[in-house]
């Protein structure tokens, strides 16, 4: 089975729209098979929460240490 046949289809987009004194971030995704959307939903929500915290308060990602593993 060729690799391109084995991988799901994924297309993600991020739109940043001016909103009052700030911005609104809209994330969309098209994923096949659709059943994988349930797996990624929590991870996507967590990533967007982290992005919001970074922009608003400068808080870095909860998972990023600034060093590659093994350093």
Number of helices: 2
How many β strands by DSSP? 2
H/E topology pattern: HEEH
Radius of gyration in whole Å, from Cα? 16 Å
Low-confidence stretches: none
Q: Strand order of the main beta sheet, please?
A: 1-2
**Proportion of residues in helical segments:** 25-40%
- Our estimate of the beta-strand percent is 25-35%
Task: Give the class from helix and strand content and strand pairing.
Answer: alpha+beta
Q: Looking at the structure, what is the overall shape?
A: flat
Distance between the termini: 37 Å
| Major sheet size, sense and barrel closure | 2 strands, antiparallel
Overall average pLDDT: 75
Write a structural description.
This protein has a two-stranded antiparallel ribbon with strand order 1-2. 0% of the residues are buried. Strand 1 and strand 2 (22-32) form a beta hairpin. It is of the alpha+beta class and 71 residues long. It is flat and about 40 Å long. 37% of the residues lie in helices and 31% in strands.
